[in-house]
Structure formats: C-alpha cells, structure tokens
Predict the 3D structure of the following.
Amino acid sequence: MEALGLNLPFLLVQIVNLIIVYTVVAKWIVGPIVGLLEKRREKIAQGMEDARVAAEARANAEKEAARIIADAQAEASKVVREATERAESAGKDVKAAADAEAAKARDAALAEAELERNRILGDLRGQVAALAMAAANKLVGEALDEKKQRALIDEFFSGVKAGKVIVVDGDFKGDAAEVTSALPLTSEEQEAVKKTVSAKDFSFKVNPSILGGLVIKVGDKVLDGSVAGKLEGLRQTLK
Amino acid sequence: MSENVQGGWRFGTARWIVLAAIILGLFLFTGFFGVGLGIKPIMPEVFLPGEKLSEEPLFIIPFVGPFYYTNTMTGLLLADLVVLLIAFGVSRAVKSGKMALSGMSGAVEALLEALYGITEGTAGKWTKPIFSWFAAITLLVLASNWLGLIPGAETIGLIHEGHGDYAVKDLFSIGSLKVQTIWDETDAAHEGEVAAEGEHHGAAVIPFHRPVSTDLNFTFALAIVAVVMIQVFGFRSQGMAYLTKFWNTKTLFSKPIFGVIDFGVGLLELVSEFSKILSFAFRLFGNMFAGAVLLFVIGSLVPVFAQSMFYLLEFFVGLIQAVVFGMLTMVFMSQATQGHGEQHDEAH
Amino acid sequence: MEAAAAKLIGAGLAMIGAIGAGAGIGIVTGGAVQAMARNPEMTGTIQTNMILGIAFAEAVAIYCLVVSLLILFVF
C-alpha cells in the first residue's frame, strides 16, 4: 500500500477536501447555472408559446378577413342586383309614362290638327260656294237667286236639305256612325244627320276627295251618297 | 518537422512561431552541424506515490498517522483554487442577470449544460441532486488533469541529492536561493538508462507541483465518496427495499433454481460495488499517471516537437477522463434510484 | 536471471492484457458509430452508452496496468 502511495491521512484529507469542493460546486456553480438553464428554457418555451399564439391569431385574422371579404362581395352583388332590378323597373315605368305621354301628346296634336283643318276647310266652304256661283253664272248666263243658289251649293256639299238628309234613305241602326263629308258640316246639318241616322255615337270626318254629299258608315253598312261615288257609278254605266 | 512548412510559404504568424520553436529545440538538444548546444534530455525518475516535499510531517492526525506535505497536495490546492475561482466567477456572472454568460463562466456553463442534458436523459426526477455530484466531480478532476499540463508542472522543484543519477549544475543564484539544474553527463552508451535499485549516487528533482489525479489517494477518495453516495441515493429513493438488491430472498423459495441464482446475483452485486471503487480509482489514476509518464518518455526520447502532439492528446484525455468519471458516477446513481428495472451487470 | 530484469519483463508481459481492452474498445466504438450513422437522432443516448461500454472495457486494461505497476514498484 505504501509503495502505491496510499496512506490513510492523505486519503482522509482528500475525502474532506472533496466534500468541501462538492459543497462549493453545488452551491455556487450548479445552483446558479441550473437556475439559469431553467430560466432560459422557460423563456424559450414562453417564446415558442407566444409565437404559436401569434400564429394562431394571424390565422384567425386571415380567416376573418376572408370571411369579411366574402360577405362584402355577397353584399355588393346583392346591392348591384337590386339596383339593376330597380333601375330596370324604373326605366320601364319611365318608358311607359313617356310612351303614354307621347301618345297623349300625339293624340292631342292630331286632334288639334284635325280641328285646324276642319276650321280651315269650313272657312274655305264659303269661298268655294262663291267661286262655284260665279262659275255657274258664267256658265248659265243668268244670275240665279243668290239664296237659292247658296242652298243648292250647301245641299251639294252636305247632302242635307231643309233639315233632312237627302242623299241617303233607308233605316240605319247601329252603335257608331261615321259621317264623312267633303267640307265640314255646320251644326244644323250635323243635327239633321243625327236625326236621320239613329246611332249612339257620331263622328264627323272631312274628306275633300269625295267632292260632295255624304258617306255614312253605320256598323258594317256603308251608304255612299257622295258626288265622287255618283260620278263613279255614272262612269260605270257609261262604259 | 518539415511538414509545418509544406503548407506553402504564407505569412501566417502561428506557423512561424511553431517553426521558430522547432528550430530552437533543435539548437538546444542536438549537435546539429556543430552549432547546437547538444543538451542530453533527462529521463526523469518515475515515482508512484506523491513525493514528500517536507521532511517533517505537517501535522499528525490522532490514531491515524502523520500527514506529510506532498507535491500532489500542491496539485490538489491548485485544483481547489481553480474550482473556487470558477465558482466565484459563475455566481457573480449569474447574479449580473445576463441570460447567456460569456468568457470563462460561459465555457463552464456550456460544459455543464451539455452534462445537464445527459443527466436529464438518464436520471429523470433525481436529476438535480445527482447533477451536483456529476458537476463537482467533473470540474475537480478536469481542473486537476489540466493543471498537470501547464509548463513547470513536474519539472520545477527541489533538487534531491543522493536519489537520482544525474549531476547537479549551478545556473545562477538570487541572494541565498541557489537555482540549479540536473545535468546528464553520462556517455551515449548509458543514455536513457534508469538508475538501478540501490545505485543512487546523483540527484533528482522533486517537483513542487504534480497533478493530483496521478495520486492514488485522490482517486480512491473520489471513488469511495462516489460509491458511498451511490448507496445513499439508493436508500433515499427506495428505502430499505434497496437492500434486496444485495440480499435477494424474494424468489429464493418460489422459484427453486432461479431463486438461488438470483440470490447469487445479489451477492455478486455486493462484490461489484466494491469493484466499482477499484475500477473508478484505477481508471482515473492509470490514465493520468500513464499520460504523465508518456509525456516524460516521449520528451526524453524525441525532445523536439513530438511531445507537442502528445500534449494535445493528454489535453483531450484529461477532459474525457473527467467526464467519464462523472458520467459513470451519474449513471450508477441513477441506476440505484431506479431499482431493479435496468441493472447492468458490471462484472469487471 | 536477475530479479530486477525478471520484474521488468513481467511488468511488460502484464500489459499484454491491454490488447483485449483495445480490441473491445474498437468494437464498441465501431458499433456505436454505425448505430449513429443509421439513426442520428439517437446520438446522445448511444454516446452515453458507448462511453459506459468503453469504460468497462478499459477497466480490463486498467487492471493490467495496476498489476504491472505492482510488479514494478511493490514486489
């Protein structure tokens, strides 16, 4: 043992020394360093946890954003559709109103034009009669009784003589009667026509191309008492 | 030698220092082209026990014996000093509140962190108390091993006349303190021959400092404390049930043949606890002592450059042995806390 | 033969036992390196066990060294 260098006092000293060193190391090296290690691990774990939470929050936010965008898109398309529908219906309304307005305006214009023409033709009637009388004077060579002449001309144009419709006879019955004359009829003549023809509604039209007399249309019957018609009949018979 | 230059004539500083050192070594130890000093390398005497530096015992422990101051005691005190300095440095650095230490304490922290990871993987919930022993043993042994590598260790000391076989040569003196060296004046025929028994007529150096891990007292002290603490951990974790590891009568009557075998294995476990002391003590002592002798021998055979390589090897061995001593202690302690689960049969 | 010479020879012969330890350490390390190459995640555990195995194998060489030292210095 002595040759190997083992001796008891030295061994005991070494053991005591080792225990002292153990105490020092355990207290001043291992304690602080293990504390440090654990603190660092905790911090790292905390950091990882924070990162995980942050990542989760980010994922949630992304999902939320996607949802919001989808909602907004749906909303927007709905709004657009509604607006389109509304605009279409409004447009239809406007168009219909405009159409109606236009039709009304056209009708009014037509009626006005009709009235104007009738008035002008009515004015013309006197002048035509005067011209016709002058022509007849020249033709016949004698002056007819002016009153007689005027009556004759009126009769020619209107087919109404002394309050009676002379150009037509027969029974006319119907709902609506259309009376066409070459020149506008006076109100007395209209009354006479109304008396002769029994119908609920009367409409009086002016068509200079029939030259004179009346064409009366009641229901599906047409009675041609016009000068043009008579001339046509004459032409047919002369042929 | 020339392989240092082979890398090309680049202007790194370190390689020029190495080259200069090699040339200085050649100049000192060879008669190279007649310009060298031709100093003959000394083959030192190998002492197994720590050499006594004091003739009189330092103190006498009652009933035990006298205590002499040996050169390994210097090594022990230096190792203690290093551990204390590390302790102060680390505790001060940790108190400063930094999350990562730097410098010396950072290196210690990195080493201990690695060891702590190993301990956690093995010891489980007993990690903290076991790790204290692991760290204490590793740090003390590491300090002791590496202190043997500082220049001057095992070379500077007292000249002991009439012990070795070399002549004494005066170098210079400071006041009354004479600085001397031993000098090989023998012929080439006797070169390298260690003095035979009883032929001491010259002088030898008794170094002031020798690493304490080359002293069996230190390694035995470590081994005894480690094995005792292994038993302490066994009792702390399992109570008296720990004793059934050695005195296993549980299966003695229930299983006729295997019960007897189990009982025998229990007794072998008891033997293996004692053999642990021996193997712990001699592993560290053998490695470090052999390392020191290896450095002597290589230094005396090839005094130039070759020893540097073995210095690096010893540096590595010192770390490995320190960690192995601590790790074996740690593993045995964890096995003791874990009971019968996973026993290795260390029949060595 | 002188006793001193016989001691030296005996000490040298005692160290022959280190051959076994060397072979054993080589086998242990080779196996551990192969295992680590196959399964790098287990490196820590394998290293711990490898060092344990090396320590046990080395114990044999240590016994040789002790015997050798005993022959040289004690007897």
Q: What stands out?
A: The radius of gyration of chain B is 25 Å.
